[in-house]
Amino acid sequence: MTAIRSVVLGCGSYLPERVLTNAELASRIDTSDDWIVQRTGIRERHIAADGEFTSHLAIKAAQAALADAGIDAQSIDLIVVATSTPDNTFPATAVAVQHGLGINHGVAFDLQAVCSGFVFALTTADNFLRAGSHKRALVIGAETFSRILDWNDRGTCVLFGDGAGAVVLEAQPGTGTTADRGVLTTHLRSDGRHKSKLFVDGGPGSTKTVGHLRMEGREVFKHAVGMITDVIVDAFNATGFNAEDINWFIPHQANKRIIDASAHKLHIAPQKVVLTVDLHGNTSAASIPLALAVAVKDGRVKKGDLVLFEAMGGGFTWGSALVRW
Questions:
Q1: Which among 122, 146, 174 is the end of a domain?
Q2: Which residues touch 308 (CB under 8 Å, ≥6 apart)?
Q3: Which of the residues are catalytic?
Q4: Is the pTM of this model over 0.70?
């Protein structure tokens, strides 16, 4: 049996130049480096400069991914940008990225699933490629969460940062087995009953404002581990793999305690877990591709490796993707 697989040709990332440390935050609000590190594992995060938009970050990450793949932007016929912090209410940030890359063909659109955005966008692009309607895709997670934070709320402003990460996918023939390179299986979930636990208190259709991020941290933590493990078990059941088969676990980088608890519950060895939350903070939809780019660049992720992605975000949304590199 043959099948079309979405194979990763390259990945790239971009972080704004400005670094905001815990010590600097502690000089502004009632917090400390020890308090932040103990509860989250975060030590610093990057903040977009004035006039530096989500699309600017996304374009730079896309350019890095295209360079890593060794392909021309003109071969891309699908762009999916996962973001909760678009440049404008409309048009989609993806069309700004498309224009910025000099592409005027194909299709470009945004996808909004908050911190699960990259996994949702990867799944969406995979479905387009496997259906045969498109050949090469850019999947981008890009955020400027610093723009929607209440900088007087120490429970949230210490958690988030800005950045972007991208992958290039290409439709390639496979055998239809789990030995294939590419996206092997994806599993997505959402449950709107949990909106009040993590949301932004504004929007053009309600308050006519952008609003600020609001979160019930303990409630999010309580639900996160169970939801994350649910979709990973689904991935294992769909492929016949288990925790021992996984080479690398690249979770959404929200909180080190959540990541550690999830890996422990799933029996994934700590040395297989890619962690960047200490240097990036929670970059929402950008966090997985940012972490992936680090692990590829330093040589950890190699051709043929099994890489497991997972994320959970406001809504709640959550999902997993299992990819053979």
A1: 174
A2: 232, 235, 246, 248, 249, 250, 268, 320, 321, 322, 323
A3: 115, 252, 282
A4: yes
